[in-house]
Amino acid sequence: MRVVSTAVPHRKITHTLRSLLYSQRFAPFLFVWPFIVTFLLFFAYPAVNTVVMSFQLVLPGDVRFIGFENYHKLWNAQFRQALIVSTKYTFWTLLVLIPVPLVLAVFLNSKLVLARNFFRSVLFVPALTSVVVAGVIFRLIFGEVEGSVMNTIVGWFGIPAQKWLFHSETGMLVLVLLASWRWMGINIVYFLSALQNIPKELYESAEIDGAGVFDKFWKITLPLLKPITIYVLTISIYGGFAMFTESYVFWTNNSPGDIGLTIVGYLYKQGFEFFELGYGSAIGITLLALILAINIVQLKFFGLFRKES
Amino acid sequence: MSTRSRWATCLFLFFFVSLSIIVLYPLVGLLLASFKPATELLRNGLSLKLQTELFTLNNYSYLFSDAGRKYFFWYRNSLVITSLFTLLSLLLSAMVGYGLAIYQFKGKNILFVLVLVVMMIPVEIIILPLYKLTISLQLINNYWGVILPFVVAPLPIFFFRQFASSLPKDYLDAGRVDGCTELGIFFRLMMPLMLPAFGAMAILQALHSWNNFLWPLIVLRTDDMLTLPIGLASMITPYGNNYDMLLSGAVLSIVPIVVLFAAFQRFFISGLTAGGVKG
């Protein structure tokens, strides 16, 4: 008797479990649960928390709301400097890292270039290095001593030896060169993947109509690359304003006159060196507002909100 | 071939060879520097001259001496974290992307919008509360603390979703008729079809994890737990860099990722193209 009474529910449970595995209504949950769980725990919860913390003074055992005080505190020379550095860096990296890879990708997609696959791989290789490795070697190349690689090269043109990482302009130049070096190949891959999706017939029919190389580039290639360009632009704006490691490696988190201080660098300093978690959160929220604002303007400019696209 | 296009071919070849030399120089420079005495680099920096007479293996023997032992802890940590992260991230993101592509269910669109939101908001903004959370979960100075918060990654989900929506649906019905469970269909029928996507994402995720800096810098606290980038960065100090460890260490740290790239690279561009990351 007892055996039967325990066996039946048991069989019932395994039966329901088995039918769940076959159920097409339950199936989606079997697949998407990892995202739901990690989204709630590691994204939504911290995101809400950072908004709350930005209005708080957070000290061990003493957490209280202080209104907008953290945001008022943002009005200081150091934060302004961080804003300027991040904005300049983003501006220059965008100026280099959108048009140059686009044109190179068009070249690398053309039959006129021999050993295309070889050059694609070579240009991608820098992306395999970490910022730390790249930073170490760029520090050596742009060394301040007279015999360093870059000082030798500029010497050929009669330019005196520079202390590259001690001045704001040359420091920014080295940062942008490092970014261009590491990211060029990745952006080329993005543009190439989009180029290969453009139907060849479009070019063929344009040729029949007598279109030249430049006509084809301006009237077919560029418009059809618009979606990927917007994508690359969006992630580059994000990457530009979130830059931290590059300047950390160049100046070990303390650059002369804060010439390498970025917004995330400032956030890191406040949060993990001075334990100002509330103030750090306010910096983070400001950064978020900035990135969102710029991206909305950018997307509007490219007409992404219009119905047709 | 016309004369004009022959000229263009030569010009392009010259252009790309020069560009390749410039692009590869920093890596060649790193390799050369790793054979130079650390004292020489501290005093005179890296020079354009080869100075082969100065070449020495001292930097490498330093790594393998007692003083360099921690370097191999970092190496082990990086290998473990990157392997776990890449495997888990591919499996979970492929499941989520596949689920979003194949099934019709309530909230599907909301979930997809949330994936895009995660993709667009920089993680740097939430690192302070995430750090607090990691402390309360007792994952500080722990591999899982580095891995778990970012293991279900939005870009691979997005990519796998694009890829899975182009898969032939007939396989689904065939699998169901043959009595396969829904998970069985995914693992036995669909996953093999998604191999190009796995190849492309494996490179991207491994690269990301191997070179990741900010989050491991925050989570990992003791010298023996650091990953390669954090450990190497700790060799850069305001009082002079430990070039003997930094340069040989940097060279060896690139090796696994180059091997991985060489093995998977033929999937890389073809995989990305097939999935159609069109933005």
Question: Could you write a compact summary of the structure shown?
Answer:
The complex is a heterodimer of chains A (309) and B (279). With 309 residues, chain A is mainly alpha-helical.
Describe the structure.
The complex is a heterodimer of chains A (309) and B (279). Chain A has 309 residues and is mainly alpha-helical. Chain A has helices at 2-22, 27-53, 69-73, 77-97, 99-108, 116-124, 131-141, 149-156, 168-195, 200-208, 213-224, 226-241, 245-251, 263-273, 277-301, and strands spanning 56-59, 62-65. In chain A, β1 and β2 form a beta hairpin. In chain A, α14 (263-273) packs antiparallel against α15. Chain A is globular and about 80 Å long. The N and C termini of chain A lie far apart (69 Å). The mean pLDDT of chain A is 89. Chain B has helices spanning 3-34, 38-44, 58-63, 69-102, 108-120, 127-136, 143-147, 154-165, 170-177, 182-193, 195-211, 214-219, 228-234, 243-275. Chain B is globular. Chain B has 279 residues and is an all-alpha fold. Chains A and B meet through α2, α6, α7, α8 and α9 of A and α1, α2, α4, α5 and α6 of B. Chain B: It is found in: Cell membrane. Chain B: Keywords: Cell membrane, Membrane, Transmembrane, Transmembrane helix, Transport. Chain B: Belongs to the binding-protein-dependent transport system permease family. Chain B: The chain crosses the membrane at residues 12-35, 79-103, 110-131, 143-164, 185-207, 245-264.
